[in-house]
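Entry type: protein chain
Record version: 2
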Amino acid sequence: MVHLVERGPIADESLRPIGEGGLLLQGELIYRVGAFSDLRLEAETLQATIIELTEDFVALPGFIDVHTHICFAGSRAQDYALRNAGKTYLEIAAAGGGIWDSVQQTRRADQAELTRLTVQRATRHLRGGVTTIEVKSGYGLSVAEELKQLRAIKEADSQTAADLVATCLAAHTLPRDYAGTPEAYLAEMAAQLLPQLKQEQLTNRVDAFLEQGAFSAAQIAPYFAEARRLGFQLTVHADQFSAFGSRVAVEAGALSADHLEASSDDEIRLLAGSPTVAVALPGASLGLGCNFAPARRLLDAGASLAIASDWNPGSAPMGDLLTQAAILGTFEKLTAAEVLAGITCRAARALDLADRGRLVAGLLADFVLFPTADYAEILYQQGQLRPAQVWKNGRCVHPSPARA
């Protein structure tokens, strides 16, 4: 995949595949990309190891999932059944289900169990070609429990070949066992939790759910101001059911505004005119049975669009990024280039990671090999064509080296 524009529509003609191409690696990095015959001569001169694939494969950058909640315990299958029976997400949450149910189940798990579960899910994602995975807290909702989650994510990162990018989502919802106001809760998180995250180097990212039943723009403003003062990058759960979060994201200088199912033309114009990346979460639309984010209109307006799985126990339990991205492309009429950019180079922008997301010299050697001669097959098969090999930091991590 060549360098693609960072914003707006992308025609498939922009994907100029290199026939009989290859990658020359140097340690964790890509040293050169080009025709295999040329690279072979250079590799022989350098006395490098040469791996020649005799069958047809398409190489893509390692996928980047910029929005997940895979550090959790328990299941919310009952929520799913209730939604299919006609209850809304907000009705289920008001009755004690939803996020609060996952909070209770996650609090009952110890750090070791959360680490194990996170590694298990990250490993599944890695086998699907996802080499970088953002992971949120937000099922702790107290200083001690948020620290437990974020420490588990940090430990899980050391136990999986994928890169885990932690995000603090203490502003997920007001915990039901908190006696004070939303403002008091956020002030406590800002004063007691955020400095501890910096001290332990657990994350440099802060997120908030801006929605009815969660937090308002006025409530989150002081919390975000303190997070920025401490040096945290921001991202926002925005416009999922009501449209006001994207404006907060843009005005706060957030890296991304995620969800956007309720975004109108006003929000689309606002995002398109800002550096904030719009992140569509088709898994949540599939899990909740609601409309998709207006991906086509966002792109046509000039926005930068990333696509993420939102893998979580409640609204997006599938957790298959490639399948969801392919389905979003079908419903929103996205080109293959737009979909693939949304889970590679544009996704990297949403995490402020300039060292990955493209197959160019000097970037991390994170790439995925699909057993096909035509890249169009990858989205055409809607996730059923699985990677033959996944490489992370210049090393084949799937299949495992012992079986490769």
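Comment: Residues 120 and 160 are 9 Å apart (CA to CA).
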